[in-house]
Amino acid sequence: MKIFFSLLLLANIGFGLMQWLLPYEQLFVESPKIELAEELKLLKEPKKSVAKELADATIETDSSAPLVSENAAAQTLCYTIGPFKDKTRALEISGRYSTQNIKTQLKSRLEKEYRGIMVYISGHKTRQEAVARGEKLASQGIRDRIIVNETGKSNVLSLGVFSLKKNADRLTARLRKLKYPVQTEARYRDRTIYWLYYQQSNESDLPLLLDDKDLDNGIGRIPSEC
Asked: What predicted TM-score, i.e. pTM, was given to this entire model?
């Protein structure tokens, strides 16, 4: 116990000598303060770096993606309306679209129009021979006939052109029972056909201004390339 008090006394004496010999400022030196401005600067720099890296990554990713034009949605759709056998009818329907502020263009071209199936008898050397056979057929109840002369066919006795194949087949079967050398052939004729063309933005409505009568006559709207 005496030794402990002795050591404590020596420590107090040593501490008093240090205070007497050294100035107070040198004995208790304050640690330098860290400026807040520097600390905030250090905190902001990593954020800027991360933002830059994200921006660079975005640019790099976008560069590999296909570019889409802003005008892609403004592409147009083109349509063809027809066919019209009558020019007046084509102009009438063109007027319907004009009332909807849709401009149409009328075009025409020469096309082969299907007429039907012709039932005929050929092999006549003269017109008189074809006439004589026609009179014989009339006596057997087949009265519709006409003599045809065209390239590759002369003095042909045509017994009708049928739009329905079943009607042509019926007459053909009847003539064969009567032992006539009957033949059939699909017939066409050159005719001027009219078409309407128009185009419009695909963002707009594309009205079908055709009535039931038009559709029944085979008139329709067909998508086409612009």
From this structure: 0.48
